[in-house]
Amino acid sequence: KSDAATTVTALLAAPALELDSAYVVSAGIAGGPPERVALGSVVIADSVVDWDRKHRWDRTQTGASDGGDAHGDVGAAVDTDPAAGLDLLAYRPRDYVHRLDTELVDAALEAAADATLDSDPAARAYQDEYEFSDAPIAGPTVERGTTVCGDEFWHGPRYAREVAWLCEAYGVAPYLTTQMEDAATATALDRFGLLDRYLSVRAVANYDRPAPGETVEESFDGNAASLDLARENAARVGRTVVTELVASDPLGVGTDSLKT
């Protein structure tokens, strides 16, 4: 996140760059929940949540210094109930969720409908290892929803429940993608009064928890087919969205100078 924020800030502050008539699109890959999205699907975010801004409480301890678990029942609750160990940041000046411009997101989704998404039988076979009754049965699609951004490389069902809890606390559940840059990009743009120009386009390369019979290490990266598929579909949708933004200028920021 620090890399993204400082890079975007440097670009916005550079006197040699004229960005008054520019939109900003982050296009890349992401993780996602297996019960919500098919591998290779592309999500255009309407909300960007900062995963790192929260309280994490160790309520298994009451002043003990030996590192032992003083309250085993509380420890078990933390594993299954995120509210037992998490709270929204008490001294936050605002909620750490960026709600992106509805008109711009609508325009991007309309443009993305014209993109042809790729599919891959090997990625689909890997997806089918996730035996959720409500898992997606279709191939890749374009979706709208919440993306969650954090510096921490988390993986597994316990932490997925915590992410879901945070999104519910902010009123933007369910989340569809997870990544590591977009909250920082949105924060930098917001400081320059340009948040309404921002789009996050993320394709799902892997799931955020293991399939039955897998370890978290084995499942972390998905597989080569799902990674390649996500890269391709992120590029296809990103290219289609950028082309439409320059052509139609949905917010009227003056993209005529960009039509080269």
TrEMBL record:
<protein>
    <submittedName>
        <fullName>Purine nucleoside permease</fullName>
    </submittedName>
</protein>
<dbReference type="Pfam" id="PF06516">
    <property type="entry name" value="NUP"/>
</dbReference>
<dbReference type="GO" id="GO:0055085">
    <property type="term" value="P:transmembrane transport"/>
</dbReference>
<dbReference type="GO" id="GO:0003824">
    <property type="term" value="F:catalytic activity"/>
</dbReference>
<dbReference type="InterPro" id="IPR009486">
    <property type="entry name" value="Pur_nuclsid_perm"/>
</dbReference>
<dbReference type="InterPro" id="IPR035994">
    <property type="entry name" value="Nucleoside_phosphorylase_sf"/>
</dbReference>
<dbReference type="GO" id="GO:0009116">
    <property type="term" value="P:nucleoside metabolic process"/>
</dbReference>
